[in-house]
Design a protein that fits this description.
With about 400 residues, this protein is α+β, with helices and mostly antiparallel strands. It folds into 2 domains: about 150 residues, no CATH class; about 190 residues, Histidine kinase-like ATPase, C-terminal domain (Heat Shock Protein 90), CATH 3.30.565. Helix content is about 55%, strand content about 15%. It has 12 helices and 11 strands. Strands 6-8-9-11-10 form a 5-stranded mixed beta sheet, with helices on one face. A 4-stranded antiparallel beta sheet has the order 2-1-4-3. A hairpin with a 2-residue loop joins strand 8 and strand 9. Helix 1 crosses helix 2, helix 8 crosses helix 10 and helix 10 runs antiparallel to helix 12. The longest helix has about 60 residues. The chain is rod-shaped and about 140 Å long.
Length: about 400
């Protein structure tokens, strides 16, 4: 997926998501406005009925006050009429003398200031009052906003939450697709490089066999021995390549198990380095060993440990620009055996060091164009170390080579 297309998709989605939120907010506001209007109409209808019913009652006054009025009945009647009109609330009720500027009655005296500011004010003049004063029934709904908006707020929050979830899933999907594309690309490169890696030793073996079939050449014991050594080296190289690929695939299974047995790692290193005689001879390189581990026997799977050593040495040789100079050393550190493989090659940058043990990852080789690795060797090494309950670390600087240190537990 091209970068401009990803940006286009993200931009379209962002615009759509923001538009959806805005539409939801507008719709919520409209819903609230309609609900508010319906609430006011219901309250007004209820109060019209209340005033109609109590307006016919005879109320005796004392100093122009409707003291004989039954306030309890007023509260009950208002609550009943509100319920009939679909409002299941009990407001604060007050009977206000507009001329005197005081309340004759308040169901909650603490709310008298709120009552004075309430918009739900209804003019009321009971029959029988000998007074020119103007009376009002005032209602105050303390939780008006809470009762009017909870449904719309819940829907709004749910909509925003769902939009966030959809956005998260969208970006996760986009990232997964991008990673999948990278993985497919790495697999394609892996297949190409693997084909090249296997073709090279096959070509060399084929050429050596042709030379051995020539009677004039095969009669010379020294020449014959040299070609046989070439076949053996290339065959070993190809065997390790194929074995690395197969074993790496097997190790992806969580149920994979190794077969540990006593292995002398110093002897194993001596054996593995012989596999690089031809390669080092052609490039005028060398392997320097410092096998100082004592004891040098550990519990390990010999096949995988052999391939581990081979891959680390082969890696050092491939990433050396001049004549390869590989230093392999062993030492003991408490209950662990340390294996170090140091090269003097191109080194690895800090950014690449974090990924060198990932499957199919290949370090940028800069001006070194003859490196045809397939990005699975170091991942295989890391898996072997993990299966042996060990630890691997890397120290490297561009232009100054790399040092891989493997720590493996000693025999109990």
């Amino acid at each position: 997926m091209k970068r401009w297309f990803r940006l286009f998709i993200v931009s379209v989605f962002a615009i759509a998501a923001v538009s959806l939120v805005v539409i939801q907010l507008i719709q919520t506001q409209r819903t609230f406005s309609i609900s508010d209007n319906m609430f006011n109409v219901s309250v007004n209808n209820a109060m019209d009925e209340v005033i109609s019913q109590i307006g016919s009652e005879v109320v005796q006054t004392d100093a122009h006050r409707a003291s004989a009025f039954s306030y309890q009945e007023l509260d009950s009647l208002i609550a009943e009429e509100l319920l009939i009109n679909g409002i299941d609330m009990h407001p604060v009720v007050g009977l206000y003398d507009g001329s005197e500027g005081s309340f004759l009655y308040s169901s909650d005296p603490r709310r008298e200031e709120d009552l004075e500011l309430s918009p739900y004010r209804y003019s009321f003049q009971p029959v029988g009052i000998v007074s020119s004063n103007q009376f009002y029934i005032i209602l105050y709904f303390p939780y008006n906003d809470i009762f009017l908006q909870p449904g719309t707020r819940v829907y709004t929050y749910m909509s925003i939450f769902l939009i966030v979830v959809i956005a998260a899933m969208f970006f996760i999907s986009l990232r997964t697709i991008s990673n999948q594309r990278k993985l497919d690309q790495m697999k394609s490169e892996f297949i190409n490089n693997m084909t090249h890696e296997i073709k090279t030793p096959l070509s060399t073996i084929s050429l050596a066999c042709e030379m051995l079939s020539d009677n004039s050449i095969s009669q010379d014991p020294e020449t014959r021995a040299n070609f046989i050594a070439i076949v053996a080296d290339e065959n070993q190289r190809m065997r390790v390549l194929v074995e690395t690929i197969l074993q790496s695939a097997k190790m992806s299974n969580k149920n994979f198990r190794i077969n540990p047995k006593p292995v002398d790692i110093n002897s194993l290193i001596e054996k593995v380095q012989q596999s690089f005689r031809l390669t080092l001879s052609n490039r005028s390189g060398c392997i320097e060993t410092h096998l100082e581990a004592d004891p040098s026997v550990i519990e390990a799977d010999e096949l995988h440990l052999t391939n581990l050593i081979y891959n680390l040495i082969d890696n050092g040789i491939k990433y050396s620009t001049d004549a390869p100079h590989i230093v392999v050393s062993t030492a003991t550190d408490g209950h662990h055996l340390l294996l170090r493989v140091q090269d003097h090659g191109i080194g690895i940058s800090k950014s690449d060091q974090k990924h060198v043990f990932e499957k199919f990852y290949r370090v940028s080789t800069g001006n070194v164009h003859n490196v045809k690795g397939f990005g699975i060797g170091l991942n295989y090494v890391a898996q072997v170390v993990r299966l042996h309950h060990g630890h691997i670390s890397l120290e490297s600087e561009p232009g100054h080579g790399s040092t891989f240190t493997v720590s493996l537990p000693m025999r109990g």
